[in-house]
Structures are given as C-alpha cells and as structure tokens.
Design goal:
Layout lengths: L19 E6 L2 E6 L4 H4 L8 E3 L3 H18 L4 E4 L7 H11 L5 H4 L2 E4 L2 E4 L9 H16 L2 E3 L8 H14 L5 E4 L2 E2 L5 E2 L13 E7 L2 H13 L6 H8 L3 E5 L1 H6 L2 E6 L7 H11 L6 H10 L11 E5 L6
Parallel strand pairs: 3-14, 4-5, 4-8, 5-7, 8-13, 13-14
Antiparallel strand pairs: 1-2, 2-11, 6-12, 9-10, 11-12
Helix pairs in contact: 2-3, 3-5
Length: 320
C-alpha cells in the first residue's frame, strides 16, 4: 500500500496513533478515543435541507458527482464509507459499469473503501452480508481497481478485536473523507444511522460499537435485501436470523467525516421512513448538553443535525 499524499485542505490527517478505550453501556460495547468531545456535542444544530430528485437513478448520479468533487478537493487517497441497502444501489450500478472501462480508473485507484455496519456472527459469504451485496452491485472490476477494501469481519470468535483492527486502520488512513448514510425507521418515529439504535448509549465520542440485535432490525435487514434484488437462500436467511449482534460505526465516526451524503429512496417499501425523516428535520435540539445527549440517544437519526457538511438526497415520495 502506497503512502497517501499530503492533503491540501483545512484539516490534518492523523499522524500520531491514538489508543481506543472501551466502554460498556447496558449490553452495548462502545469504542472511543479519549474523553467525550463536548465541543462536537455543543455544535450549533444545522437544518438539513432535503434535495428532492426525480428518480433513484438521479440520486445515484448525484452521489457519483460527490465522489468526483471530493477527489478534486484534495490530493492523494480518499477514504469512503459505503452505504448498505437501497440508498446507494443506483450509484453502485453506475460505478460498476464504469469500472469495466478505463473512464474512472484514476478515481478508483485513490479509494480506500470501508463498510459501515454488519450483522454478526455470520459467514462473510452469506448473501445477506453487505459485502456480498456490494460485490453483486459493484462487480469484480471495481474491487480490483480500488486501493483497498476493508469490511467488518463477522466470521470470527473475537468480534471486538476485529472491530478494533478495523477502526485502527481507518484511523491510520487519516479518517473519513466521504460517508454515505441512509436512515432506518424505529418505533415512535425515531430512526437509526448506521445501526446506532435508540437508547443504546452511544455518545458523541464513540467511533464504533457492538450492540445486541433486535427482531425489528433483522426483519428490516432481510426485507431490504430481498426488495433490493439479492438472491437469498433458506440457509443464508436462517443464519442471518440467528445473528446476535450488530457491528456499527458510531456518532464519533459520523461527526468526524469531512462530508456526509444521505440518501432515502425506499419510502414506498419502507413507509415509516417518511415520519422518521420528518422528525429528523423538525426536531428542535436542546441547548442544554444533558438534554441534547438524551435526545440523540432516544433518536440517533438526529446525529446528522450536528454535522456541518451534509447533503440529503431524497425521492418525492419521502416528503408525502
């Protein structure tokens, strides 16, 4: 692996290794760097502005333009977090087709690609694994041309050690340049980002976590893969339903990314997303740090409101 070139932006890549600390909140394990980052928690809340596009294809092309723009904004390598599920499938198809030509080879050759969450324990070749879905959509040429691809390892006896290695690699590469996010529905019109669940105890400094799985998450995960066209065998579905934990990036990773691109394209098949997205847009975040932290834990979709550089791409039916 070649060393990254100097980044010509207002941020500095991480040069001094930091030590991850471990915290347990109820049954949830969270990994973080140092003490809580109260400055991030106290950020002025932004107002997410929905950008309504006419089709999933248009969303995919807008996402591809984001990749090109971030490549133009800096020199050297680019760290990208892939989005599972429906939100970026159109972009992946477009990129997969381009990867079979030489048109974007220079761009692909700069990417360090990471996944953002996973169900575990589960075989890495399970058709309900995000990795298999990425391979199906992006194709062999994409993975042959990117600089590196790092999934969360779910076929292991030590999930915490594997997640630690994953985070340390992300840290060593200088952090996240572009983070593709969706929005998952939860009870009472709450929502999750990555798989940061309501009341799982995630704080502003937590970069990754291991949380117990719920039946609602399993159903949502399996359904979105089937709707998205993944071929699911009975064996794979049975193994998926036996998963006990979720590996996920945390609020610290989301807020530390230089650019967030959110997409919501599946309100027709997941209608609860309409109400939970509306709540993200309309909630007034408290000024008091303790009250704000409780709001964010109750409704993790609100973490997006503390990021200063967000683009939210949606289809018209999300706003109905």
């Amino acid at each position: 692996m070649h060393e990254s070139q100097a980044v010509q932006q207002s941020y500095q890549a991480v040069t001094v290794p930091r030590t991850l600390s471990r915290r347990v909140s109820s049954q949830n394990i969270w990994l973080s760097y140092g003490n809580p980052d109260n400055d991030r928690l106290a950020r002025r809340a932004n107002q997410v502005q929905p950008e309504i596009l006419e089709s999933e294809e248009a969303v995919g092309r807008a996402q591809l333009e984001e990749l090109k723009q971030i490549a133009e904004s800096k020199d050297g390598d680019i760290v990208m977090i892939l989005l599972g599920g429906r939100g970026a499938q159109a972009m992946y198809r477009i990129v997969g087709e381009l990867a079979q030509t030489s048109e974007i080879d220079d761009l692909l050759g700069r990417f360090h690609v990471f996944t953002q969450d996973a169900l575990a324990p589960m075989r890495m070749d399970n058709s309900l694994s995000f990795v298999r879905d990425f391979e199906r959509l992006l194709g062999d040429a994409f993975f042959a041309k990117v600089k590196s691809f790092t999934p969360m390892q779910t076929q292991t006896d030590d999930l915490e050690a594997e997640l630690t290695r994953y985070i340390e690699k992300l840290e060593a590469l200088g952090g996240i340049d572009i983070f593709f996010l969706g929005l998952g529905p939860e009870a009472s019109d709450a929502s999750h980002l990555c798989y940061i669940k309501p009341r799982c105890g995630a704080t502003v400094s937590d970069v990754a976590g291991i949380i117990p799985i719920s039946q609602s998450i399993l159903e949502h995960h399996i359904n979105k893969f089937k709707v998205g066209g993944s071929p699911v065998t009975e064996r794979d579905e049975a193994e998926c339903r036996a998963a006990t934990h979720i590996l996920t990036l945390g609020p610290g990773a989301i807020l530390g990314a230089r650019r967030i691109v959110q997409s919501i394209v599946d309100a027709s098949t997941a209608p609860a997303k309409r109400q939970c997205y509306a709540r993200v847009l309309e909630t007034e975040l408290a000024d008091d740090p303790k009250a704000r932290a409780k709001q964010l834990d109750d409704n993790p979709g609100l973490w997006l409101r503390l990021h200063p550089n967000v683009r939210s791409l949606v289809l018209p039916d999300v706003m109905n």
